[in-house]
Amino acid sequence: MKNYFCIVLFIGYCSNSLAQYTNVNPINCKISDHEKELVEAMAKYQVNYYKRIFDFEPTTVNIDLIGKHKDYLKLSHSSTTKYKTAGFYNPSAQKAFVDKTRNAYLKTMYHETQHAIIHQVLPNVPAWINEGMSELFECFEVSKDQIKPDIQGYKFYKMKEYAGKNSLNLRTFLGLTHSQWQELNGTEEGYSYTVSYSFVSFLFMKYPNSVDMILQKLKQGRNSIQAIEYATKKEFNQIEMEFITAMR
Description:
Layout: E1 22-27, H1 33-51, E2 61-66, H2 69-76, E3 87-90, E4 95-99, H3 105-121, H4 127-138, E5 141-142, E6 147-148, H5 153-164, H6 170-174, H7 178-185, H8 191-206, H9 210-219, H10 224-232, H11 236-247
């Protein structure tokens, strides 16, 4: 597998801002002011990324932080599912819900914040790039004053396994609806997340600025394949081959 383990910083970061991008509502739990600052810093970073691409004024991202696992399971309707979620975003309610009992709940809030922001500019965002971007942002290292890109290396190694099996049809995967994407993820825990994250990361590293153009073309009504071909200036079959080769 080639070394694609380097993601460039998308944008500069400055912590001075009068805008408030998040509203965290702790339910049966507490969250420190420092943790709120980290969530706010990541939200600002994500907003600044999307404002480079789209002309929009973001609305506040509302997050319910649930302190009791059983209460979260009821809200998420995942109490009977094989793989339990740690958070979810409800577009109808325009609110994210996060399970505070999970160790990585801050990362989950970064993840769900991305869903809330991208839905403001691209309500019909395809599942692969919606989840891929959330997976990408959630693993960044966040402080009050600095955002540093990081990677989920284990996902690249899982992708190497999937690529070696020759079982991935990327064209079909990119056309999955959100429900189909989730159903596929249920066949093996994390499968859809791994593929989405790996492909989005590949695009950022192999074709700088391509994700920006893909998002723009999706906004204009192009499908995923058309948007990718426009952004990379290559036939999709070649992009798929490059991706699989890079992951092996």
